[in-house]
Amino acid sequence: MSKGRGARCKPNILDPLLVFPVGRRMHAHVFVAISNGFVSLLLLLLGLVLVFAGLELVRIVAGLVLGVVLALVFYAIGSGLGLLAALVLGFVGFIIGAVIGFALFKAGIALIGGLVLADILVKLFAPGAASGLAVLVLGIVLAAVFYVVVDYFVVAATVAAGSLLVYAGLLYWVPSILAAIVSLLLFAAGIVYGWGKMRGGRR
Question: Among 192, 126, 183, 128, which Cα is nearest to 160's?
Fold first, then answer.
């Protein structure tokens, strides 16, 4: 019987400590510390990526999403022509969607923002107007304005999100005041880098 019980139990270097309450707490703290440290490193890494490459990451995600959508549409269109034709058309649809989503990401964001803001303004200030036409015309005008500045807003949003993730990751390693200072400096550096990169690309 003792052999059977022993065969089911794998030895652990911390097992002798589990006999005592202090040992059980220390055993739990060790694994919690390891998991929290790993999560904090992931937060730091993701935060740095968002701070310095957030705009490119958002564009890539938009391209992949539109690519998958068009791939499914093209696959459905070609499904009546056989499996091979459907797969080829699906692949073509993915390439087209990815290129459009990446290249026209700015225009899409500007148009969505313009139409949403136009709908809000028309409902607030001209509720009796021909809402559909008014929203469309005003939305196009606002979209043209947003198109000029949308990159700056996206960079600011991704840099802010990345700085918050860095702050959350640093809390495991340093005091909160130091984490806040580092995050604010990183936010400023990310804004300068991102906006400066956009201005340099337009020359």
Answer: 183
Supply the pLDDT for residue 104.
Answer: 80
Categorize the per-residue pLDDT at 24 as very low, low, confident or very high, splitting at 50, 70 and 90: very low
Question: Could you give the CA distance from residue 67 to residue 90 in angstroms, rounded to a whole number?
Answer: 9
CA distance 150 to 157: 11
Report the half-sphere exposure of 4 (CA within 13 A, side-chain side).
1
Helix residue spans in 126-175 (DSSP H): 131-170
Tell me, what amino acid is at 188?
Answer: A
Tell me the domain boundaries of the chain.
55-103, 105-203
The alpha carbon of residue 96 and the mean position of all alpha carbons in its chain are separated, in whole angstroms, by 23
CB 168 within 8 A of CB 43: yes
The set of residues, in sequence order, having a beta carbon less than 8 Å from that of 107 and lying 6+ positions away, is: 147
Angle between helices 21-78 and 83-103 (to 10 degrees): 110
Q: In residues, how long is the chain? A: 203
Closest among 186, 172, 175 to 36, alpha carbons compared: 172
Instruction: Judge whether residue 179 has pLDDT over 70.
Output: yes
Cα–Cα distance for residue pair 11/123, rounded to 1 Å: 70
Tell the burial category of 122 from Cβ atoms under 10 Å away from its Cβ (0-12, 13-18, 19+). Answer: buried
